[in-house]
Every structure is written in C-alpha cells, then in structure tokens.
Amino acid sequence: MVIEGALARVEKGLEARFPTRMVPDLDRITDLLDLLGSPQRAYPSIHLTGTNGKTTTARMIDALLREFGIRTGRYTSPHLQSVTERITLDGDPLDAERFAAVYDEVAPFAEIVDGRHPDRVTFFELLTAMAFAAFADAPVEVAVVEVGLGGRWDATNVLHAPVAVVTTIGLDHVGILGSTVGEIATEKAGIIHEGATVVSAGQTPEAATVLTERVAEVGARLAREGADFGVRRRSIAVGGQSLDLAGLGGDYDEVFVPLFGAHQATNAACALAAVEAFFGAADRGTLDIDVVRAAFAGVDSPGRLEVVRRSPTVLLDGAHNPAGAAALAAAVTEAFGFDRLVGVLAVLSDKDVEGLLEQLEPVLTEVVVTMNSSPRALPAEALGEVAREVFGDARVAVVPRLDDAIEQAVTLAEEDGSYAGGVLVTGSIVTIGEARTLLTAGGA
Q: What is the pTM of this model?
C-alpha cells in the first residue's frame, strides 16, 4: 500500500504538469538534462517517429536487441493502463517503487528549471528526463525511444540517434503538426541528424520527398522499404503470420510473427532493418537467423488487434485515425472469419471521426458508440450522430458507459446463436486501456 501510495503521488505530480499551451522549443528539456548530467549521452539510441506503428515497431526492435544479448531501455507513449508502462528496462516496465524513486530524483531539478523559463517543465518532458535518467542508471546498452508528438520539437529530439526509424506518415494531429502530409513529414523528419541511418517505411511521394531532402541536408543515409529492405512474402499462420524478409544485409526466411495484418509485417521489416543498421549488418551480411526468429516469435503488442476474450472473441485495437482504421479493417478481414462483428467505438474529439468510421463500416455488422474517460472524449451522442450518417440508424446504438457498451456488443455478437460472432473495441488508445482493464484479469 505504501508503494501504491507513492505511485499515486507521482501520478498526481505528473498530471499537474500537463501543458496549458504547446511551446515549440527544446529549451526546458535541454536545461533539465544538463542539470542531470546529460544522461541521454550515456548510451546510443534508436529513435522512432511516424504516424502509425511506432510503438509496435519499438517493441520489435527491443525484442531483437534483447535476443542478441543487449541490455535495453524502451520509452514509448501513450500508455494503456499505467504510466509505468512507458519506461521499460530489458522489456519490463519499471515497477512502482522504482518509478517513484526516479521521479523523486528528477523532480527537484524540474522545479529548478521551472524558475528559469516562462513555461514549466511539462508532463512529457519530465517523463522523458526520467526515462533517460533511468536508462543511464541501469545502465542500458541501447535505448529504443519513440517520439511523443511529431519529431522536430519533441522532447525526445535531444538524442541525435545513430539510427532513426520513420514509420508510414499520414494525417493526424493536424491542428498541431500541419494540414498536409508534407507539413507533417517536415516535423517528423526533424529527428534525422548528421550521420544517422534512416530506416523508412513506405511513404507517399510527398512524404518521401521531404525525408529525402532532410537526409541530403544533414548528411544522413536512407534505407527505404521496397528498395533496400522489405517483406518478400507473407502468409497467414495460426496465431499470426509467417514472413520472408529482405533485410539490409540479406534475406531472412520463415520468420513467424504472432501479430496480424500486413501493417505488422511492414513493422517487422522496419524493425529488422533498424537493428541491422545499428549493428552495421548491411556491410557484414545477415544477422543470426535463429536469433531473429526467436525474437520475433516472442513479440507482443498489447492493444494492437489483441484477443482478450473468447466465446465470443473480443478484440482490442488502438486505431484512432483513418489510416490506422484501414489497416485494422484489412487485418480483421484477413485473419478472422467473423459472420458478425460488432464494433465498440469511443474516440477523442480532435480526430477525423467520419474518416475513421468510413474505414471500419465495411467490416462491422453494427456499432455500439460510447465514450472514454478522457477530458478530450467526444460525447457518445455526438459520436452517434456521425455513426448514423456512415452506418445508418439501424446499425448504431448509443451507450454512454464503456462497460455497458461492451456488454451490449457481446450480447449482439451472440444473437441468433452465432458461433462466429465477435466484438472489436477501438477508436482510441484511451478506450483500449480502459477496456483492457475491464476485460483482463489485472490488466496486463
């Protein structure tokens, strides 16, 4: 109970630092890390940005490195159920006691920085400093770090990592990052620094041009999916898929990945190329295929087309923009044979709700719209109005509470004695975290 109380105290302290306005600079995080002795310089990093797939790709990179005997730190966001998930050592989140201890080490320095700048150190900046400090203290041999938002002005962009990964770039956070793919790509390309190797998933021509220009500008090297690495073959397998991958150093055949969808195959190809680049495998041939196979076979990605219940099957997926929803719809169609699939949707108000629903409409028999606990949540009735435009009145139910919405969806999935009915909960990482708490014993 003492440890739980300490974590609650830390969560309260972090939440008090949510920014009241977005300030595009790295001044506070740089000042804070300088006071801490620049812990981010104690180890090399692999830095990830992009619109979708960052967290899963980071988890894959982490798994590969650990299978090769490398001690890793991983920093990802947002979390599903506990803020401690964001900072992991050797694949495991910091326990509550260690998380609180790191906060207590870093927070006094944040208060010093508060007094030096017009704006206080933010929630994400403090967490970033905590992660870098925890990694240095461990110590880790490699840090795998996902940006929080964008790239150029993200607090993680103090790393100047030797390997940068850019997953597919699309439209999201348009009110902050820009209204076109090119503008968003410009922000994300900011993590590319001199001498880096950039591993890029397939991009639109607009995004590809921005990345290529940034690489040339800073003297980096670019490895492109489809030209320098990629997926040579994929087939459905029990519990996932089997892949033949083309890496930077050669081919890797019969790699099983226990995740569903073509987008996860792309994530795997990017992860493998990133680790190859880190090890310099492009000049030295392939990595040990048995180690690569073992690493991918053990990968998981909670909240990404995750099966959490059977009879009926209940799936959780954090898709929150049209591109993510399109990948989700394709993966569900490919990997599952549902006769009836009922959606449970709760989204945030700043998302392209209509675009998301349009991608999901072909695969959902009906949809139960609800809301999560986020202050940014779109009210259930407002979401219902959009859903009725896309699905029609007869296929939409509005249930304000998430637990009641899931219960109603399960009932609908089992109607008429269907043995091939399922439930898909999606729309937001917040939604998936809350559903996971409701549906799994102890969450993770």
A: 0.94
